[in-house]
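Re: export button greyed out
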Amino acid sequence: MIRYILKRIVALIPVLLGVSFIIFSLLYFTPGNPAEYMLGMDATEENIQALEEELGLNDPFLVRYFNYIKDIVTKFDFGKSYTTKQSVTIEIMDRIPATLTLAVLSVAFATIVGVVAGVIAAVKQYSIFDKLATVIALTGVSMPNFWTGLMLIIIFAVNLKVLPPSGFDTPLHWILPTLTVGMASSATIMRQTRSAMLEVIRQDYITTARAKGQKEIVIVFRHALRNALIPIITVVGISFGTMLGGAILAESIFSIPGIGKLMVDAINVKNYPMVQGGVLFIAFAFSVVNLLVDILYAFVDPRIKSQYKNSRKKKAPAALVGAKRGDSQKEA
Amino acid sequence: MGEPILSIQDLSVHFFKDKSVVQAVNHLNLQLGVGETLGLVGETGAGKTTTAMSIMNLIPNPPGKIVGGKIMFDGEDVLKKSKRELRKMRGHDISMIFQDPMTSLNPVLTVGDQIAEVIRLHSQVSRAEASIKAQEMLEMVGISGERYGDYPHQFSGGMKQRVVIAIALACNPRLLIADEPTTALDVTIQAQVLEMIADLKHKLNTAMILITHDLGVVAQVCDKVAIMYAGEIVEYGDLSDIYEHASHPYTQGLFGSIPDLDKDTDRLNPIAGLMPDPTNLPKGCSFSPRCPHCTEACKTQDPELREISPGHTVKCLMFQNQEE
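Workaround output, generated via the alternate export path:
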């Protein structure tokens, strides 16, 4: 198991190298000159050239990329933000608490609501609750985030005046953004839970459990839900990974100092080091979440665990996990 | 026979699908004495498993529904029991061995926990005592108790079926329903498993219903035989009644289709035709479209079960008319 985890961590290196190369090239090929953005409209040609020279923008592409990677590897230095002159690492670190809080809260909310509703909908298939849950889930998926956010502000902050409309300082401030982001993913999780549970409930071992005289509630949670967890964990993991990259819309609406906002601002002014650092961070966060999800699989399903243990090549579990993930994406 | 432990009277089970009704079991009557073994024989789709599931009141609803009849177990109607009483009965008084051992164990729970679960449900014992008992059950079916903490995927098919048997017998049930317990297994393992079931049954004095389509298995294990066709029992009797005096044309057809080792034939000798569509059963005798002795009366008149010798009943107009 530990061997497997180590292997996966080592496998992160080529992934991050690839991501860094792609984002570096993309930024290189996009039009626009960061020096012009930094100096403003009335800058002289000389000033711009001097700044370009200072930032190293005149070096050949490969030299720039090599220097960038060299600084990261040798000094763990991701460069300085063009706009604030602060280290990119510090800029990102500053934004992590807000993003992480929002991600954890909204995923927790979405998981609890989604799993509970999904289980009930599956157990009481075709009942009023099932139909209602399906309709609500469809609405949840269809409502764009910015609209939900604005509606929540109008209802709870403007009309009822019970919650603050923006900011992210106290737990009270967290409620509306959490609802905004969580609602959409709870709908996805609910649908995934429902379909996974419906499949599991039809299995023979559920009949075996009934034939033992077990209570229905124990059958649902002990026997069925655990078997349905793999696709659910996959969706939850994907939502969480995505949110670690920042919820751009929600952050903008509620003025939350998160990663998403940081990235959008950086892209707008061609702040190369900031964008590169941010993208690398997002890629890293996503990979770590994915690894955690794969480790969780092993705890949920002993068959996957023994595959991690036995196989020297990680091909087998990857294939299995890939298949399950394929299923869930089809559903989502 | 004495007082029967199980008595099914006029049981009908239908499955409702979209617009059609599948008549899986029709007016079925069956009796089973204490400690007796009954073989329930019939081809796929004859309603054997549905009958078994009805006895435990486990018909999935929807789409299935028990539309009529009584199932008296130990003097009480299973169909009138509350959910709580049913839970007490399932696994304790009546337990079931399912057809496919590959899918009837929960893949994420250890086999030991799955055996201990049923023990804890039906007797007031601590977790530790239950696991000791579960280990004993494993030993009893010939699996080392050390494998308590292993998961189903670490066992072979035959061993999984042993675990399923251990679960079924853990609470000393008075009635064991074995639904084709050996169909999914190799022939060599089949013999072992059958022998073990018969042995344990004898030890615990359990009555048993063995569902199968293998007449050889029945001859090896059972006291009584019931032949099922299209949701009805067409012939019932003890081993010699059925094997030596097969009377219903369907039973005769079944025996006729077994290839004879001594005869040199190139082709098998099947019963002509197919099982009738259960959503649209024939009006008279359900076997009439395939019956070599079919008369005009058979197509309109549904025969009743008639006793042709003590304990040997047949549902065929040929015998009904003889008496009249």
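The CA atoms of residues 193 and 232 of chain A lie 6 Å apart. The button fix ships in the next patch.
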